[in-house]
Amino acid sequence: MDRVDTRGALLDHATRLVRTRGYSAFSYADLAAAVGIRKASVHHHFATKEELGVRLVARYTERFQARLADIDQQAAGPVDALERYAVLYREGLSDGEACLCGVIAAEIAAVPPAVAAGVADFFHVNRTWLTTLIETGAHSGVLHPQRTPADHAATLLATLEGAIFVARAHNDVTAFDQIATTAIATLTA
């Protein structure tokens, strides 16, 4: 495995570990074992766990933004866009995975400030995108927000993040589906 492949494999495995266990619950030894390299080699690619965490969050945010751009291009309208957005949070649940940034946010007091800043950026990106979508839907008459689009964006984001944890606690993906459907319905009623 060359340097780029090893770095990518480390990021992939670290992402899975954070999404299933949490940021504080994995070590470089876990990564070394998963990738088949020595622990010292992990430090060669990411000198500190903070450096790794910053890159994980940045990569996750970049990939999420690309998915949001895809929704913008492919959605048949605001309701379809909201449903596709909910799917982004649902993905991984059947494998026990939660949103990387949601998991890190749950332990925000224990993560380095640079990682926390990246998580805050992820949520800002999502709130901004949702606010714009809800504004557009309201102007077209498809969505009927009872509060400001920004308020609904924050509420929907928090609801979907929370729905992940409810579904994981019950080991029931349909719990997520019910919560997400209800949350979206509040904007279409």
TrEMBL record:
PROSITE patterns: HTH_TETR_2. Residues 4-64 form the HTH tetR-type domain. GO terms for molecular function: DNA binding. The keyword Membrane does not apply. Keywords: DNA-binding, Transcription, Transcription regulation. Residues 27-46 bind DNA. This is TetR family transcriptional regulator. It comes from Actinokineospora cianjurensis. The lineage of its organism: Bacteria, Bacillati, Actinomycetota, Actinomycetes, Pseudonocardiales.
